[in-house]
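User: I'm new to structure prediction. If I give you an amino acid sequence, what do you actually give back? Let's try with this one:
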Amino acid sequence: MNVEGLLEQGHAAFARGDEPLALDCFSRILEADPRHLNALHNRGVLLGRANRIEEALQCFAEILALDPGNVSALVNSGIGLAHLGCNTAALERFTTATVTDPGHMEAWMHRGQILARLRRPAEAAECYASVLRLDPRHIGAQLDLAQVLQVLGRPVEALMCFGDALNNLHRFPQALECYDRLQAERPRDPFVLVGRAAALAGLDRLDDALECLRQALRIHPDLPIAINNRSFIHLAQGRLPEGFRGQEVRWKLPPYKDRRLNTPAPPWLGGEPLSGRTILLHHEQGMGDTLQFVRYAPLLAQRGAKVVLRAPAALIELLRTVEGVAEVVGDDAPLPAHDVHCPIMSLPMAFGTTLQTIPAGTPYLHADPARVRLWSERLGAASRLRVGLVWAGHRVAPINYSRDIPLTALRPLLALNAEFVSLQKDVAPEDAAELSSLPVARLGESVADFADTAALIANMDLVIAAETSTVHLAGALGKPVWVMNCYAPCWRWLRGRTDSPWYPTARLFKQTSFDDWASVVDQVRSALSELLDGAASDHASPSPRAASRSTMAA
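Assistant: Good question. You get back a string of structure tokens that encode the predicted 3D arrangement of the chain. For your 554 residues, that looks like this:
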């Protein structure tokens, strides 16, 4: 096998956890080309994971001999040296890495941890602060900073860091206790009030959270994080115009302030005529956000605009099915010609959207018929109601802490007489063994992009999912979708509702107490049992799937 073939095989083996095969592939590449940087890096990482530290360090040393500024090699060699107890040498590597790339969070974290180990807490605190400037929600940096602040005799600041970390871990009851203690120490600190509001919102005490934010804004009227968090509460309460206007402050906050589109064209935020002009709509946040708000593209076309979308590669084929969209380009491609631009998340504000004026017509996305047929052939004939499942999204902290559902919690649901299909694109290693013991067909891992997922969903009678991009895709396709929500759901699902004004085919199920997924699964199991009973009594229809669809539409 040639070098490129071995490289591909090695990466694939590494990705699926077959580390011995991956190590063999990269070692064979280096026999042919000892200066192959990719193979050296991966071999070093694998040797480190196998606790063969000296051999791993040799790989990274060879990389640095060829490329002295290679930050990954600097960081990995620092990790290896620290593992061997060579703390001073490790610190030198991490320091060089942070000087070479001041935006490398891992280098700053390791540098801080080595400094703390060397009993240099003030310098360690500066490193953790650098991490938090890059990512204010970095939980590890918050916890480590809290520890060194305690050592430095700054207990109130340490408690603040600890409270922020608890919020980001979605441990809201404990976070609220921290902020209550902090408020007694610092009653007029707006950041304490903002943190306390976040804990209250996580416990679904929205009115109390809103009052905290009002107090913070009386002290600091222009505090962006307070305005931003207040906007989420307004949205959750159904006050959409106020909420979407408040969201525009995101451009003053990380990470969004570094994501502004680099274009000389002016933004379009509503009001100005668009006839004969090209508007560029650009993805800026999650995949689900783009799937939800691309519904506004046809309205722009109706105003006479040529609509061009810029989005991640995985969305391109699917977004081409939106009515009125003239062109879709990748977000790594050169900017297409345009007269004005609008971030997709700003569209509801630009249209002055209220609960009554949400453009809720579905489907506005469409599955490719050829792909639908291919998935139909792979699935085979259905003899029972076919249910697509998603229990977790992309593993991005802190969102996944409250959103994702333990796979084991779904066992009562899977005991029902339905055909269950996993739509899960990425299955976590801890879920793989559990999934193999469950009556669930694993197909989601085979999808190529969102157009593929759409075609697979088209073959389902019902989708049951945690609050992920799959929910938005199913809703945009007009497919019946049941959403399993945490105790304090995302703003878009509002409060006190079992339906959604954004997706007419959606049905909402919410935890009845904090962090209680059993209550959600019990609700969904009862609803699905009723649906199956209804489908069974409707067997006069020519096929079970047709019967199930008529039951759900009734």
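You can read the tokens as a compact description of the fold. Here is one thing that stands out. The first helix runs from residue 3 to 15.
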